[in-house]
Design brief:
single chain; mainly alpha; Citrate Synthase, domain 1; 2 domains; 16 helices; globular; binds acetyl coenzyme *A
């Protein structure tokens, strides 16, 4: 029997993994054995990374060692800063700047002088927030702020952005977000990373490729537009006419629908709970109430206008709300997603390296056959 074409690889199982499992019909996400709801609200990002990379939560001394290794990497090669300055001069989007800067991390000096590759996995992980924060400040015409050795990954990111230490609620909300998005099965960017590493290329190359995949609006680029939609709606009575008009124009509502989840995205639930906690102490409560109304209206209209498509709230809708509540501008939503997801990309690269099998699917040729070569003088119009 001829192999069947699967457009978009829907339903194709292309890898076995112990890192995370997605059950789209049940609306469940398991991360290295833990239901997402069990771990996302309690773990620090460093604990989550250790779990993803080693399949076991760290002990106290192990966590301290990992934390101090990350701290040693939180500075950038001079050339990376030059690239970021050039990107800021042309006001490039943050994801483009991160993509370009990530490739230059190969030039990082290893802080402990170890012989391992300078672009070590800890270095890549530690430097992502440094790049994003430095670039964001350069874009505002401000100098980058150095990381603080006594702060963890999430708190350092917020501090490097603003210069002041964040509130504990903001840090916890960001830890929950980063843990929630750290891995998610064989999504497009993770698949990209695995394909690259399957050629025995290196992990930094895989991370750069994955960033390119994450940048697209159908993957990591949705939360900014999701929040813009809430702002554009502006008041509860406008939700229905604005959303209905968008759907009737054939537009997609950002933050809704998912290739795998045909029920509510469990990450949306975890982030909704985190947002509810955060907005009880921080942020714009009116905006939060409006967003909840927009969500309810969108779900009702999607059910009415796109019946049977089973479109539910995805992770991006509550990402937008949560990150806005933490104080991040929407331009930083996708890069902050990358800061979390790079942990999963690296975990998958390590797993793929152990598996060591080239990923090389086939395509079905649909073009002409037996065309005849014609010299250029004989080709007319
Ligand atoms: N708004 C309106 N209609 C939608 C939406 C949406 N958000 N999502 C899907 N549909 C409709 C499609 O138009 C299509 O309708 P049709 O049958 O009349 O042609 C039907 O639902 C099925 O759509 P597909 O394109 O087959 O769904 P797919 O599985 O490819 O899409 C995707 C998944 C890309 C996430 C889609 O739901 C979408 O574009 N959502 C908006 C963007 C978004 O929120 N992206 C973030 C996803 S989460 C993440 O990547 C981290």
């Amino acid at each position: 029997m001829a192999p069947q074409t699967m457009p978009g690889l829907d339903g194709v199982i292309a890898a076995e993994t112990r890192i995370s499992g997605v059950d789209g019909e049940a609306g469940e996400l398991v991360i290295a054995g833990f239901p997402l709801e069990e771990i996302a609200g309690g773990a620090t990002f460093e604990e989550m990374v250790t779990l993803l990379w080693n399949d076991v939560l760290p002990t106290g001394p192990e966590l301290a060692r990992f934390t101090s290794r990350l701290a040693a990497f939180r500075n950038l090669p001079a050339v990376t800063l030059e690239v970021l300055k050039a990107a800021a001069a042309s006001k490039m989007p943050v994801m483009d700047a991160l993509l370009m800067a990530a490739a230059t991390l190969r030039l990082s000096a290893h802080p402990t002088g170890e012989s391992e590759s300078s672009a070590s996995i800890e270095g890549i992980l530690a430097q992502f927030p440094v790049v994003v924060a430095a670039y964001w400040r350069l874009l505002q015409g401000e100098e980058p702020i150095a990381a603080r050795p006594n702060l963890g990954h999430a708190a350092n990111y917020l501090t490097m952005l603003t210069g002041s230490a964040p509130a504990a609620e903001q840090v916890r909300a960001l830890e929950t977000y980063l843990c929630t998005v750290a891995d998610h099965g064989l999504n497009a960017s993770t698949f990209t990373a695995r394909v690259i590493v399957s050629t025995r290329s290196d992990i930094l190359s895989a991370v750069v490729g994955a960033l390119g995949a994450l940048k697209g609006p159908l993957h990591g680029g949705a939360p900014g537009p999701a929040l813009d939609m809430v702002f554009e709606i502006g008041s509860a009575e406008r939700a229905e006419p604005v959303l209905r008009a968008a759907l009737e124009r054939g537009e997609r509502l950002m933050g809704f629908g998912h290739r795998i989840y045909k029920v509510r995205d469990p990450r949306a639930d975890v982030l909704a709970a985190a947002a509810s906690r955060l907005y009880s102490t921080e942020g714009d409560k009116d905006l939060y109430a409006l967003a909840l109304h927009v969500e309810r209206t969108a779900l009702r209209l999607l059910d009415e206008i796109k019946p049977g498509r089973r479109l539910h709230t995805n992770v991006e809708f509550y990402t937008a709300l949560l990150l806005h509540g933490i104080g991040l501008p929407s331009e930083l939503f996708a890069p902050t997603f990358a800061i979390g997801r790079v942990a999963g990309w690296i975990a998958h690269c390590l797993e793929q390296q152990r598996f060591d099998r080239l990923i090389r699917p086939q395509s079905a040729y649909t073009g002409d056959r037996n065309r005849k070569w014609m010299p250029i003088e004989q080709r007319h119009g």
